[in-house]
Amino acid sequence: MTNIIISDWVFAVEQTQKKANYYRVISISAPEDSALSMGKEVVRLPDAREVLYLKFDDVTDELQGFALTLNGIVLATKDDCRRALQFLSQGGNIIVHCRAGVSRSTAIVLGFLLSLHADYNIAIDELFTIRACADPNTYILRLMTEILGRDEEFTLILEAIRRKQKASN
């Protein structure tokens, strides 16, 4: 059984301190030396049961080309996504966090949910149940759909996300 919480980094730190050795955590932050890092994204979670640290910037599909022209931008990789999928598939009580808990973390969790559900609408509904303010990073989501062999559904998934967001507003 997998119980997933998506949050910002502050909530993740607080929860792992309240329940030491309880949560497994995927901690997503910008690399310390990244051009996009605010210098405040270094998160340490000594009280977590287990932590997967991923370090990449919050660069969306739309900004990927522009970002590559900047020095020091670190993009998510398929290896990052595969490591996250493997970590999530091991189950347990899991917190997935990034800076705000809106973009990178929700894309990672949606990728995992897509691995569980053939119907992407079910995966999207489950994501928005977990995190109502979800706005999955499109670059990471594209990597996830490629890994899962669902890249032909990428545009349909994006459209379904936008419909869900519009209905929530």
From TrEMBL:
Q: Where is the Tyrosine specific protein phosphatases domain?
A: 79-131
Coiled coil regions, renumbered to chain = none
Q: Which SUPFAM superfamilies match?
A: (Phosphotyrosine protein) phosphatases II
Q: Which InterPro entries match?
A: Dual-sp_phosphatase_cat-dom (IPR000340), Prot-tyrosine_phosphatase-like (IPR029021), Tyr_Pase_AS (IPR016130), Tyr_Pase_dom (IPR000387)
Matches recorded under Pfam families: DSPc
User: What is this protein called in UniProt?
Assistant: Phosphatase
Q: What is the organism field in this record?
A: Uabimicrobium amorphum
